[in-house]
Design goal:
This protein has 15 helices and no strands. The chain is mainly alpha-helical. The chain is 70% helix and 0% strand. The longest helix is centred in the first third of the chain and has 32 residues. The relative contact order is 0.14. It is globular. It has one domain: Glycerol uptake facilitator protein (Up-down Bundle), CATH 1.20.1080. Belongs to the MIP/aquaporin (TC 1.A.8) family. It is a multi-pass membrane protein. It is found in: Membrane. This is Aquaporin 2. Keywords: Membrane, Repeat, Transmembrane, Transmembrane helix, Transport.
Length: 326
Amino acid sequence: MPTNVVHLRDVQSRSKFFTIWEKHRHTTVHWLVECFAEFLGVFFYVYAGVGSQVPFIVGPILSIDGLSSVLQIGLAYACGIIFAITICSSTSGGHFNPAVTITLMLFKGFPVFKAVRYIIAQILGGYIACLLIYVQWHDLITASELVLAAAGTLDSALFTPQGPAGAFGLYVIPGLSLGRVFLNEFVTDVFLALVIWGSIDPTNVLVTPQLAPFVIAIAYAAAIWGFATPALAANPARDIGGRLAAMTIWGKQAAGGRYAAIAALTSIPATILGVFIHELFLTDYARVIPSAQREYMEVHLNHAHAHGKAASDVSSNEKADLEHNA
């Protein structure tokens, strides 16, 4: 461990209020700070992505061209992921997805009770983001509902991918086979899991910690561009949070029927399988950790040592990797 460690407090002073708060945030309320980081990360992801889905849906209904596109939606979700990881991951470890949290619990020993807290915070982040987006777009969403009602198609279109509720709750195109919808979700989520796990592999020479957020973001954008039309959730926090928001706005009929279970649950076994494949065939503990990754891990460990314990369970995992490869 390097001795010339410089903490922010060594070069910048802070007000008495925040100095006292920082003592508590690393002890009695650290769990709340971590959960807030997970909440905020999912909020960024959903706020950016759904914010582009709404104009994509209401634009054609209101005959307004050029408001959004599938390209824009993919890029928006990618931006949200970049913001989430770069701003929030240093506090919570950067899960932002219940499937990732559950997988870390199984493969890395992430505490069960802490995982439950994280998942609740993640879903809440998606829920609040969708409600705020609805308020911001309320007038145009209401106008689009009036147009559909005047055409006599509101009841048949509202809870579909082309209806106003479809920007928040995820719905399947009428007539599609749920079996193929499940396959589409499962395969895409395995692909995403492989990219995520490969990007955070500390021995990956080509993907440094600084590059990982962008690689993961591009993977999500590619998934949306290629496979969103047959129905894709990709993150239970976005799906469940958005669906609960739709039910808050439009009632129980916004639940989504049998597809809701596919959207909410499929990514969990898919992510577990993707990580298992990576661990089985691609992970190698005999590899050397590159300097960029080692510096990143040591930064987390020095922060943890400053407070006498690991700042997060992800930091603890990094410590184990460091000791294994020392």
